Amino acid sequence: MTFLPTELISELSPNSPTSLEVSVRSEVERAVIMLFEQLRDPVVRYVLSFGLSVHDAEEVTQEVFLALFGHLQREKSRRNLRGWIFRVAHNLALKRRGTNQRSQNQTYLDRTIAENRLDSSPNPEEQVLSAQRQRHLLAVLNVLPEEDQCCLRLRAEGLRYREIARILGISLGAVSISLTRSLGRLMCADKR
pLDDT tens digit string along 54-111? Predict the structure, then answer.
């Protein structure tokens, strides 16, 4: 999908927009651009965690911000737009993953290992030990229930418990229990 310049959009509309409509549109565009610049990378990372390809993650992210543009243009609530963006990203990623019918665990594991390549400065023994530790922790992460994985990913992106609860549609207590349980399992696995 490509974004059309404002001039083209107004030329395509049957009625010429009023100066008020242009002013509102430019305010909405500025808000969307600002949020896009701030949240694009975290949204892409979150969508990638669903096992989607980079191409699919980019498309889903673009759909999220197009939806945000429509949301703001319709003068819907601007309260907690960050949480709203991640909720839409969550839903669209689930939908895309279901459509693709990919094996989430292996794709996620491969991509995560590739993204986290070790710095060449450690010696080979340290590199092997670190890679084994990373694979072990990822294996533990991948056997966690999907809800626990989502809670961890959203928390890693800096979202608060309340935002995570809204995005996943679970209680605040469930988020707390999920994160405590998941982090406990990861810490226990890391001691081995």
Answer: 999 999 999 999 999 999 888 888 888 999 999 999 999 999 988 876 454 555 556 6
DSSP string across 60-71: HHHHHHHHHHHH
Please state the φ and ψ torsions of residue 154, each to the nearest 5 degrees. Answer: -65, -40
Query: Which pTM value belongs to this model?
Result: 0.57
Of 52, 142, 152, residue with least CA distance to 102:
52
Given a contact cutoff of 8 angstroms between Cβ atoms, the answer to whether 1 and 62 are in contact is yes
Ranges of H-type helices in the chain: 6-12, 19-48, 54-73, 81-100, 104-115, 124-143, 146-156, 161-168, 172-191
pLDDT value of position 5: 45
CATH number where 4 lies:
1.10.1740
- Judge whether 126 lies within some domain: no
Residue-wise pLDDT tens digits, 32-63:
899 999 999 999 999 999 888 899 999 999 99
The rounded distance, in Å, linking the Cα atoms of 192 and 175 is: 26
Indicate the DSSP class of residue 175.
Answer: H
In a domain, 71, yes or no: yes
Any domain includes 185:
no
**Domain containing residue 75:** 1-102
Asked if residue 177 belongs to a domain, the reply is no
Number of independent structural domains in the chain: 1
